[in-house]
C-alpha cells in the first residue's frame, strides 16, 4: 500500500484528523451503526463455500441480494441450489438505485435507503486514517474519497495507445524478415509501462446501445478510419456526427445476411447456431460477418492486425461486436487447439501457401475437428485477388493437410478431418509432417509457430461437441484433459462454478440493476470454466464476454470453447491487445490476490482503466486486504469506488469492489 501512495500528491485531502478525538469517536460510532444497518439491508445472505473439492479462493463470497429481484430476473431453467440459500433474508426490503450511473453518466441521487447526510459520510470516511473504528466505516455503498492523489492524464497523442503494439522503439529495432513481426506483441519493459491515464478523444460520447450500434456509431469515438482508402469502399459512410454501416451491399456484394444464406445453402451441415457456434473472422473489415452471425446464435471472434489506416478492430468493438487484435505471424495465436467451429477469411490478404503453409497450419490447429474453413474472394475486390496464392497451390496444400474441399469458387469451403486416420495414411515423405507427440497444442503463450500438423487427440476429444444451446451446460470431454491439481470430480467443480455464478449474477441483477445497465462488451479477466459468461447468457443479458484465462492458472480455454464461448490466454502482468475504451464491464474474481505476487497491481488497474469505456464498470471480488488496496488505486484512477461486504460481516474474508468510470 505504501508503494502505491508514494508519488501522489494529496490535493483533495479533506481532513477531519485535526478535529478533537472524541468528536471523531462519536461520529464514527454513529456512522458505524448506521452503516451496519445499511449493510444488513443491502447485502444479504452468504453462499458459503459448499464445495470441498476446491480451495475457497475459487469460490469467494456470494453477493446475493434483495429478495425482490427473483421474479423478474430468474430465467427459470436453472433453479438456485437450495443448499446455498440460508433463510436469513429480510423480506420486503426494497432496494432502490445503488448509486448507479444513469444513461447520461450522471450519478443518480435516489441512493438507496432512508435519509442520511452523504457529505457527512464522505468527510468522515476521508478522515479515517489512524482510527480503529474508522476501518469499519468502509462498509457502505457511498463513494469513498481516497487519500491518494490522482494519476495524471497522458498526452493527447496517446488516446489510441496499445502498449504492446505501439512500442515504436522495439519495433524499429526489428530486422524485418517479412513475417509480420512488427504486428506482434512487443511489450514495454518492466517499469516502462503506462503510468498515466489514456485520454479520451474530445467530444467522446456515451456509446450508442446495441443493437442500434451495429448500424451506426459516433464519429467522435473512433480514430478517423480509412483515411487512405483507395478501394473506394462502402463499408462505412459518414453521416453527420455518425458513421453508418449500411446493412446491405457493403463488405459483401449482396449484404451480409444474403452472404450467410449463401454459405448455408452451399453447405447446410454448417448449421449456424447449432453445429456451428464459435467462429473466427480473420481481417474482418468492420466485423459485419460476426455482427450478422450473432442473430443466428453464432459467437464470432473477429481478429485483425493493428493498422493505423484501417483500425477495424476499434470499429468492431465500438459497434459492440467481439473482436481483438491478433496476427498470423511467427507465434501461435492465443487460442487453444480445436477452438473454432468455423474460420472465415474474406479478402484477408494472407498468403496461406507462403513458407510451406505455416500459417494455414496454425489455422488447422485452432480449427475444430470437422470444422470448416471458408475462403472468399469477393467479386467486388477482384483487383486484389492477386493477394491470394493461386488456387492450385492452395488446393495442393489443403490436400496434404487432409482437408476436404467441399466447394470451390468465389467462396471455397473446406472441412477438417474428424480424426487422425487420414494423416496417418499419408505417404511418409509428404510434408508438412505431423507434430511431435510431446507437443501440447494448447500451450500458446509465447510459442513459436512450427511447420507441422497438429494431431487430433486419439480419444476423439473435441470432435463431438453437443449442439448449441445444450452445449452451454453439458460438461465437455476436454474438461478431463485439463492439466490441474484437482483430481476430484471435475464435473462437480464445473457444475458448482456454474451454480455459484448463477446465484451471484441474480444478485447483481437485483441489487445493481444489471438489466438496465445495457452491458455490451464484457470481459472476464479470470474465466476458469466460464460460469460467469454462462450466467450472463442464462439471464439473457444482451452482451458478449471475452473470457480471459490468465497464464498464472490452469489452462481451461478448451473447455470455454467447447461450451460455446470465446476466450483468450493472457498474462495480466502485460497489457491486453485491444484499443482503449473497448469494454463496458470488466470483471475480476480472485484474480488480484494471485497476480499481486507476480507483478504490480497498480499497473493492472491502469490497464483496466485503459480498456474500460467511459461509463463502464469494474467488478472486483477478492480478499479483504486486496480490496482495501485496490480501492485506493481505484480512487486514484478517478473511478468512483464502492465497496460491499457480505452479511458475514466486516471481518469476512471476501469483498466486492465496484468501480465506475464516469464520463
Ligand atoms: C419490488 O420492488 C418494487 C419497488 O422497487 C416494488 O414496487 C415491487 O412491488 C416489488 N416487487 C416484489 C415482488 O416485491
Ligand atoms: C495516517 O496516519 C499515520 C500514522 O498513524 C501517518 O503517518 C500518516 O501520515 C497518516 N496519513 C495521512 C494521509 O494522514
Ligand atoms: C539486426 O541486424 C543487425 C545487423 O544487421 C544486428 O547487429 C542486430 O543484432 C540484429 N537485431 C536483431 C534483433 O536480430
Ligand atoms: C506500481 O506501479 C505504479 C504505477 O506505475 C508505481 O507508481 C508504483 O511505484 C509501483 N509499485 C511498485 C511496488 O513497484
Ligand atoms: C437463438 O437461440 C435462442 C435461444 O437461446 C432461440 O430462442 C432463438 O430462436 C435462436 N435463434 C436462431 C436464429 O436460431
Ligand atoms: C504466396 O506464397 C507462395 C509460396 O511462397 C508463392 O509461390 C506465391 O507467389 C505467393 N503469393 C503471393 C500473392 O505473394
Ligand atoms: C504439391 O506440390 C508439390 C511441390 O510443391 C508437388 O511435389 C506435388 O506433386 C503437388 N501435389 C499435388 C497433388 O499437386
Ligand atoms: C475418421 O474420420 C473419417 C471422416 O473424417 C471417418 O470417415 C472415419 O470413419 C473416422 N474413423 C474413425 C476410426 O473414427
Ligand atoms: C522462437 O523463435 C525465435 C526466433 O526465430 C528464437 O530466437 C527462439 O529461440 C524461438 N523460441 C523457442 C522456444 O524455440
Ligand atoms: C457424439 O455425441 C453424441 C451425443 O453425446 C453421441 O450420441 C454420439 O455417439 C457421439 N458420436 C461419436 C462419434 O462419438
From TrEMBL:
Transmembrane segments annotated in the record for this chain: 21-39
- What's a Pfam family in this record? Methyltransf_29
As recorded in UniProt, its EC number(s) are: 2.1.1.-
Record field: compositional bias (Polar residues): 47-73
Name its cellular compartments: Endomembrane system; Membrane
**Entries under InterPro entries matching the protein:** Put_SAM_MeTrfase (IPR004159), SAM-dependent_MTases_sf (IPR029063)
Does Glycoprotein count among this protein's keywords? yes
Topology in membrane? Single-pass membrane protein; Single-pass type II membrane protein
Region Disordered, residue ranges? 47-93
Per UniProt, the enzyme's principal EC class comes to: transferase
The keyword Methyltransferase is assigned to this record? yes
Keyword annotations from UniProtKB, A to Z: Glycoprotein, Membrane, Methyltransferase, Signal-anchor, Transferase, Transmembrane, Transmembrane helix
Top-level taxon of origin: Eukaryota
Q: Which family would the database say this protein is a member of?
A: Belongs to the methyltransferase superfamily.
Please give the name of this protein: Methyltransferase
Which organism is this protein's natural source?
A: Datura stramonium (Jimsonweed)
Q: What is the lineage of its organism?
A: Eukaryota, Viridiplantae, Streptophyta, Embryophyta, Tracheophyta
Amino acid at each position: 500500500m505504501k508503494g502505491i501512495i508514494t508519488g501522489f500528491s494529496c490535493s483533495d485531502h479533506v481532513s477531519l484528523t485535526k478535529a478533537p478525538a472524541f468528536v471523531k469517536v462519536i461520529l464514527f460510532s454513529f456512522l458505524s451503526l448506521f452503516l451496519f444497518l445499511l449493510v444488513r439491508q443491502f447485502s444479504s445472505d452468504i453462499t458459503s463455500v459448499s464445495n470441498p473439492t476446491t480451495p475457497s479462493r475459487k469460490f469467494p463470497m456470494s453477493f446475493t441480494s434483495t429478495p425482490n429481484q427473483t421474479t423478474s430476473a430468474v430465467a427459470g431453467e436453472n433453479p438456485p441450489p437450495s443448499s446455498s440459500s440460508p433463510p436469513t433474508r429480510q423480506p420486503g426490503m426494497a432496494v432502490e438505485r445503488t448509486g448507479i450511473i444513469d444513461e447520461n453518466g450522471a450519478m443518480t441521487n435516489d441512493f438507496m435507503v432512508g435519509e442520511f447526510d452523504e457529505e457527512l459520510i464522505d468527510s468522515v470516511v476521508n478522515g479515517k486514517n489512524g482510527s480503529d473504528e474508522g476501518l469499519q466505516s468502509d462498509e457502505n455503498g457511498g463513494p469513498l474519497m481516497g487519500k491518494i492523489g490522482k494519476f495524471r492524464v497522458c498526452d493527447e497523442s496517446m488516446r489510441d495507445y496499445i502498449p504492446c503494439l505501439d512500442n515504436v522503439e522495439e519495433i524499429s529495432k526489428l530486422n524485418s524478415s517479412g513475417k509480420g513481426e512488427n504486428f506482434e506483441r512487443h511489450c514495454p519493459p518492466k517499469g516502462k509501462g503506462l503510468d498515466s491515464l489514456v485520454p479520451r478523444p474530445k467530444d467522446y460520447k456515451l456509446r450508442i446501445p446495441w443493437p442500434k450500434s451495429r448500424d451506426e456509431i459516433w464519429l467522435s469515438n473512433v480514430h478517423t478510419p480509412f483515411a487512405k482508402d483507395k478501394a473506394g469502399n462502402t463499408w462505412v459512410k459518414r453521416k453527420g456526427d455518425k458513421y453508418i454501416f449500411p446493412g446491405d451491399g457493403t463488405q459483401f456484394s449482396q449484404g451480409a445476411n444474403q452472404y450467410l444464406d449463401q454459405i448455408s445453402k452451399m453447405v447446410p451441415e454448417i448449421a449456424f447456431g447449432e453445429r456451428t457456434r464459435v467462429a473466427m473472422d480473420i481481417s474482418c473489415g468492420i466485423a459485419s460477418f460476426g455482427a450478422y452471425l450473432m442473430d443466428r446464435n453464432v459467437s464470432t471472434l473477429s481478429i485483425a492486425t493493428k493498422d493505423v489506416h484501417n483500425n477495424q478492430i476499434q470499429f468492431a468493438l465500438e459497434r459492440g461486436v467481439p473482436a481483438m487484435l491478433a496476427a498470423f505471424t511467427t507465434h501461435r495465436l492465443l487460442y487453444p487447439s480445436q477452438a473454432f467451429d468455423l474460420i472465415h477469411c474474406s479478402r484477408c490478404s494472407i498468403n496461406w501457401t507462403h513458407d510451406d503453409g505455416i500459417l494455414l497450419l496454425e489455422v488447422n490447429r485452432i480449427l475444430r475437428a470437422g470444422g470448416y474453413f471458408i475462403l472468399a474472394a469477393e467479386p467486388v475486390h477482384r483487383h486484389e485477388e492477386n493477394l491470394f496464392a493461386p488456387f492450385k497451390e492452395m488446393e495442393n496444400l489443403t490436400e496434404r493437410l487432409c482437408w476436404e474441399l467441399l466447394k470451390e469458387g468465389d467462396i471455397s469451403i473446406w472441412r477438417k478431418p474428424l480424426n487422425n486416420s487420414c494423416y496417418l495414411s499419408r505417404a511418409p515423405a509428404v510434408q508438412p509432417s505431423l507434430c511431435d507427440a510431446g507437443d501440447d497444442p494448447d500451450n500458446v503463450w509465447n510459442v513459436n509457430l512450427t511447420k507441422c500438423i497438429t494431431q487430433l487427440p486419439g480419444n476423439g476429444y473435441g470432435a463431438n461437441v453437443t449442439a448449441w444451446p445444450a452445449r452451454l451446460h453439458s460438461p465437455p470431454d476436454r474438461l478431463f484433459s485439463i492439466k490441474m491439481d484437482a483430481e476430484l470430480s471435475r464435473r462437480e467443480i464445473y457444475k458448482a462454478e456454474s451454480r455459484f455464478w448463477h446465484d451471484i449474477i441474480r444478485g447483481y441483477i437485483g441489487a445493481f440493476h444489471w438489466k438496465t445497465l445495457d452491458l455490451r462488451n464484457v470481459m472476464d479477466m479470470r474465466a476458469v470454466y466460464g460460469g460467469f459468461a454462462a450466467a450472463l447468457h442464462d439471464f439473457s443479458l444482451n452482451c458478449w464476454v471475452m473470457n480471459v484465462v490468465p497464464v498464472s492458472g490452469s489452462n481451461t480455454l478448451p473447455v470455454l470453447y467447447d461450451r460455446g464461448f470465446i476466450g483468450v490466454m493472457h498474462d495480466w502482468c502485460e497489457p491486453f491487445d485491444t484499443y482503449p475504451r473497448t469494454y463496458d464491464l470488466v470483471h475480476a474474481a480472485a484474480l488480484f490476490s494471485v497476480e499481486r505476487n507476480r507483478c504490480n497491481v497498480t499497473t493492472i488497474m491502469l490497464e483496466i482503466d485503459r480498456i474500460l469505456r467511459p461509463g463502464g464498470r469494474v467488478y472486483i471480488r477478492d480478499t479483504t486486504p486486496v480490496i482495501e488496496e485496490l480501492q485506493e488505486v481505484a480512487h486514484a484512477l478517478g473511478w468512483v469506488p464502492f465497496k460491499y461486504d457480505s452479511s458475514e460481516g466486516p471481518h469476512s474474508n471476501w469483498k466486492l469492489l465496484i468501480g465506475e468510470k464516469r464520463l
